[in-house]
Amino acid sequence: MKVICSIEESLHRPEAVRWRDRMKLMKPLGEVVVVLPCSMKKPYSTSRSHRKFMRVTRGFQELILTSPFGICPREMENTHPISSYDVSTTGEWSHEEKKLSGELLRDYVGDLDVIAHVDGGYLEVCEEYLDSFTPTATNSRPTSPEAIHRLGRELEGYEKIGARKRMLHMLRSVAVYQFGEGADVIIPDDCRVRGRYHRRILTKDGSEIGTLMMDRGLISPSFEGAASIYSLGVKWVEIDFRLESNTLFAPGVVDADREIIPNDEVVIVREGDVVGVGRAVLCGEEMVKAERGVAVRLRRRKSLK
Description:
With 305 residues, this protein is an alpha/beta fold. Helices cover 29% and strands 27% of the residues. Strand 8 and strand 9 (199-204) form a beta hairpin.
């Protein structure tokens, strides 16, 4: 579903606020961050401009500046809502847009080297919030051959990040975005990925951890993955009866994590054991208080014995 962000008040949409909050948990990979402008087409890598950028930036940590969401590391570009929002890309930024994006940018890059392949309002954000950076598109448009050549030349002094390391970083970033700080432990070093683009199955020692669903860019955990999530104390829904259907109604919920919001992947537990995995229909507080209605639609549940 498209998220329409056509006015400055879109900065305060719940989706945008939540995204910015979770971007504070993201960590860059490598020794340099390449800052890029956003594009009208989403995901960004499908746009003509980003295809040009990626000819020289692939293998390095890329960070897209965008409003109202602030920042988007390349590895998160397929995750909803950043994968499907509409916004005007005039290049002109208000004071509040600069502040929200600039603070996230500054905190994300930390002490790493920064190459800013941006112009206009994007460049102003870098100038106001970064102590130092290398600009590569100040005298020409970022998509121009001259600017892209300068970008490639600046990157020659840095070592590229290997494909497997980038893949693990992407999966761990998605896990942290979904389940919070510390959730990167869900993805082990020996994690393997198989399957087609739209549905990638994550395994460890032959056992499924979960599935990366590319339509939302989020992980749907298996029972093994759900147990790891439950051990973090997040996204849990407690019941006190035996599940016999794939629909959990609110009256059957004993307690739930109050941080759950609709469409979150949640873990159903009974007496401390994981008995189901599904997608929340209600927020955690509503699940506990409601006297009717569906709380969770299950995708997996343990068979009755």
